[in-house]
Amino acid sequence: MRVALVTVGDEILSGDTVNTNAAWLGERLSERGVSVERVVVVPDRVADVAREVNEALAEYDAVLVTGGLGPTHDDLTMEGVAAAVGVPVEEHPEAVAWVEEYSDYEHADLVPGTTHLPRGARLLPNEAGVAPGAEIEGVYVLPGVPEEMKAMFDHVADEFSGEPRHRRIVDADEPESALLDRIDGLRERFDVTVGSYPGDHVSVTIQGPDEDEVEDAAAWLRERVDAVEQ
């Protein structure tokens, strides 16, 4: 399964807020064997949300959108997603019923628009907040508040699956440029993907669907680098 993540929010683009939601979702999805192949941040504009969602839908199996839910002036994600799939946004009876039954609010107390979703969407209840999420045509719309987003994703996590991938990390006490020949050799000998990440040392990440293959590849590399002392 291949997915794209779209984060909505001017505050992300300005640097006022760190995009922890994308990192968390990427980790959770990868654990389930899902391939996250695109992460995009867009401003709070209907046209931008619609364009990115529409493009992602054409290429990926699912799109997860976070941020911009609710009734305030800059909460435009539902409108953008609705535009991407060609439907209007309207009052969602199931969302109204859920708020009445499970939240501390009466529908009449909510700001108008709180329970508006794209027509035909499936309600994703917000068990950690109020503004509901939605799923429509493979687009999952989740809140931007991390606690609410995590709770809502847990509600639909079983809908995301793929080939499990195994990972090993080899820490090398050498410059990244000096490792290129051995990384090339690793790729030639084993059916794995390899990434290298410099810092105080170089962490070489080895991943693949076959656990034995990944372990053999990691062992091969460890024998050929100056390993970091633990």
Task: State the gist of this model.
The protein is α/β, with parallel strands linked by helices and about 230 residues long. The protein is built from eight helices and eleven strands.
Order of helices and strands: EHHEHEHEHEEEEHEHEEH
Taking all Cα atoms into account, the compactness measure Rg is: 21 Å
Number of domains: 2
| Low-pLDDT residue intervals, each spanning 5 or more residues | none
Q: Which fold name fills CATH's third level, the topology of the largest domain?
A: Molybdenum Cofactor Biosythetic Enzyme, Chain A
The CATH class label of the largest domain is Alpha Beta
End-to-end distance: 37 Å
- Taken as a percent bin, the fraction of beta residues is 15-25%
What is the helix content?
25-40%
Number of strands: 11
Q: What class, by secondary structure content?
A: alpha/beta
Order of strands across the widest beta sheet? 2-1-3-8-7-6
Largest sheet: 6 strands, mixed
CATH superfamily of the largest domain: MoaB/Mog-like domain
Q: Tally the helices.
A: 8
- What overall geometry do the principal axes of the alpha carbons give? elongated
Which second-level CATH architecture of the largest domain applies? 3-Layer(aba) Sandwich
> Mean of residue pLDDT?
91
